[in-house]
């Protein structure tokens, strides 16, 4: 593409943005400001332009009316289509200059004051809507037109062409700079939003991977028990028929294969360079120790277990682990956001499910939070994922006294249970906590 073709395209092809300035503002009166300003400019320049062209430049009244209507009316069009408005205004300026050639020497020519103001207002609309090459092409046309008036109509030269060239260039440059700054801020805001979304997504994936690694220990324990029982059945049970021995062997082989597949999956989920955790997963029996740790951080926490919890029977390891992690995160939030506050952890039955509630009061006095209230809230992600994994429900929110409450209901039916509920990592049942126990 030649320079000439590129220049013509810049003057004829608009950017394509049809919305007026401030169209994205939330308040209606702010969106109406451009229309009010353009309407006021038209209302002032239209009658003034007609009078000035007729009285001071001797233009025919009919032609003066048409020129004034075009030169001021394009400001309303320029709100949505500034380049088209400029294309309509340029011929009107040329026609007006030709019609006012016989003006008195003391009158401005070829830019009457009303035409000059309309042109500069239109430059503002162009600068905040069109691309840089279009603005440069518009200024070049303005400069060439003013230069032509200097040379061809030198007897009328009074300096207005220099003023138009300088002011239009300054307005276009300033508007282009402000528009570029606005675009940069918009792109930065979009990148920040994308980064925030990516951080939230990455946090969610990391939390899911951590939950998978923890549940691996729970499930692996029960699969190991199945394997050992199936392998030792022919030796522990006398008189088994060969078919039963073969069946137990197939069960043991399937269990070992499942364990191998699960370990391979865990290798994918495990972060690079992180060593496997060989400590037993915590459960309900570890809650008193957890509350004691919170007490060392300045939060006095009490554990209350209602009578009906013992009637639920053995709590599956996955439920016990999830309950422990929910309480752990809730108490950590109390330490971070309400240091010195008191907290209560309550376990209760709920129609075949384990219900737990962590409630804390407001911090005493004016104790400053360890973290501001405007945190990311990513700690709730882990709670929701664990509760969702067990098909349970989670409810969080502030209390009337200025504290905070975290309530979760964890169904017991369908959760993985082992043959021996008292064995293995995280196998904590109601037997580990006496009803009515209170731990500070």
TrEMBL record:
Record-annotated membrane-spanning stretches: 35-56, 62-79, 84-103, 109-128, 135-153, 159-178
Gene3D superfamilies for the chain: 1.20.5.1930, Histidine kinase-like ATPase, C-terminal domain
Domain Histidine kinase/HSP90-like ATPase as annotated: residue spans: 321-412
E.C. designation(s): 2.7.13.3
Reactions accelerated catalytically: ATP + protein L-histidine = ADP + protein N-phospho-L-histidine
InterPro entries given in the database record: HATPase_C_sf, HATPase_dom, Sensor_HK_TwoCompSys, Sig_transdc_His_kin_sub3_dim/P
Annotated region (Disordered), positions in chain: 416-440
Alphabetical list of CDD domains matching this protein: HATPase_UhpB-NarQ-NarX-like
Protein name: histidine kinase
Organism: Kitasatospora saccharophila
């Amino acid at each position: 593409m030649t320079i000439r073709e590129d220049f013509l395209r810049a003057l004829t092809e608009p950017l394509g943005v049809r919305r007026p300035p401030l169209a994205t503002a939330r308040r209606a009166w702010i969106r109406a400001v451009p229309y009010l300003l353009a309407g006021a400019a038209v209302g002032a320049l239209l009658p003034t332009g007609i009078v000035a062209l007729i009285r001071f430049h001797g233009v025919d009244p009919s032609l003066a009316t048409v020129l004034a209507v075009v030169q001021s009316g394009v400001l309303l069009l320029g709100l949505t289509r500034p380049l088209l408005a400029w294309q309509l205004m340029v011929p009107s300026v040329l026609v007006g200059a030709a019609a006012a050639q016989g003006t008195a020497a003391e009158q401005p020519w070829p830019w009457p004051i009303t035409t000059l103001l309309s042109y500069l207002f239109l430059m503002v609309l162009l600068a905040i809507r069109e691309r840089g090459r279009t603005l440069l092409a518009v200024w070049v046309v303005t400069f060439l037109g003013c230069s032509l008036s200097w040379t061809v109509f030198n007897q009328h030269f009074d300096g207005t062409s220099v003023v138009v060239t300088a002011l239009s260039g300054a307005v276009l440059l300033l508007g282009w700079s402000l528009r570029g700054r606005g675009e940069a801020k918009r792109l930065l805001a979009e990148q920040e939003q994308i980064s925030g979304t990516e951080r939230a997504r990455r946090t969610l994936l990391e939390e899911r991977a951590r939950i998978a690694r923890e549940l691996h220990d729970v499930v692996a324990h029960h699969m190991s028990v199945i394997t050992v029982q199936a392998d030792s059945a022919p030796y522990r049970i006398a008189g088994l028929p060969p078919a039963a021995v073969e069946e137990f062997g197939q069960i043991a082989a399937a269990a070992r294969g499942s364990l191998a597949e699960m370990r391979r999956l865990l290798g994918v989920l495990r972060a690079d360079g992180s060593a496997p955790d060989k400590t037993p997963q915590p459960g309900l029996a570890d809650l008193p120790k957890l509350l004691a740790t919170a007490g060392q951080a300045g939060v006095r926490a009490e554990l209350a277990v209602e009578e009906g919890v013992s009637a639920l029977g053995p709590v599956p390891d996955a439920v016990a682990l999830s309950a422990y992690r929910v309480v752990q995160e809730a108490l950590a939030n109390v330490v971070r956001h309400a240091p010195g506050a008191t907290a209560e952890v309550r376990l209760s039955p709920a129609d075949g499910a384990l219900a737990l509630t962590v409630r804390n009061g407001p911090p005493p006095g004016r104790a400053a939070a360890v973290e501001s209230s405007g945190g990311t809230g990513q700690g709730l992600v882990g709670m929701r994922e664990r509760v969702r994994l067990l098909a349970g429900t989670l409810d969080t929110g502030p209390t009337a006294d200025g504290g905070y409450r975290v309530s979760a209901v964890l169904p017991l039916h369908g959760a993985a249970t082992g043959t021996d509920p008292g064995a293995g990592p995280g196998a904590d049942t109601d037997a580990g906590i006496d009803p009515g126990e209170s731990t500070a």
